[in-house]
Specification:
This protein folds into two domains: 2-170, Rossmann fold (3-Layer(aba) Sandwich); 183-272, Pantoate--beta-alanine Ligase, Chain: A,domain 2 (2-Layer Sandwich). Helix content is 37%, strand content 19%. The protein contains ten helices and nine strands. The termini are far apart. The mean pLDDT is 98. The structure holds adenosine monophosphate. The site of adenosine monophosphate has 17 residues, from α2 and β5.
Amino acid sequence: MQTLTTLEELRAARAKLRGTFGLVPTMGYLHVGHLSLAQRAKKECDHVGASIFVNPTQFGPTEDLAKYPRDLPRDLALLENAGVDLVWTPSPEIVYPRDFQTYVTVENVTKPLEGARRPGHFRGVTTVVAKLFNALTPDKAYFGQKDAQQVVVIKQMTRDLNFPVEIIVCPTVRESDGLALSSRNVYLNAEQRIAATVLYRALCAAKELYERGERDGSKLRAVMSELIAREPSAQLDYVSAADRETLAELERIERGALLSLAVRFGATRLIDNFVLE
Ligand code: AMP
């Protein structure tokens, strides 16, 4: 496995690879969720590249950029073990040189949900992903369903800007008690870790109601909010039952929905979602 830092090194290594190339973008501190993307890419592509970059432009001024967990040696060992061919680990100065002034903005689908609570977040995500697509020229790029709105936004950008990349969405990997794997789970103390299963429990309760025939979006949102309210260490940020493409809240669910929610445990904010077909 080749580990590359500068853009020149990266381009030279990429140019030598023949056949199809799959890209797995990450912010590092890898877990089994990230590795599931690499494994899928390995199955579907001749070569696989990953990026490890804690992207400053997608963090708000009061968010956890400085303390975001990092462990590069461990990440590199995991990627090597997963059979990844090359890893790009640029510094912020390489991705955003002095005088950087060009950003990618996706309009409507970045406005609700995460976009409403994290101003500028998706502008940072789309800008860095566009740069990764340009630098690594993948045939396929792998993203997790865990970040449901990110997937919608990236697909929109890919269509709108004609990137010749197929976006592959991989299922959310969970702990045995249902908690979605996340690099941020390490921030939880023992009590919060137990309480954090409430995201999964709330999604299961809403899904069950839907499967029993409930089609009123506000009822599905209410059942999720009620479960979160019963968990003393959890503070609800939002619950949503939205159209899977536009992400607009649904009053009646006729063609499936995206159930999603964000919940705080102290300073740690967790998100999760289910797709209702
Ligand atoms: P991150 O390092 O948090 O930016 O995540 C990198 C990629 O891994 C994104 O496409 C995420 O959606 C994906 N990912 C994160 N957690 C999970 C998980 N539990 N299951 C599947 N994919 C995940």
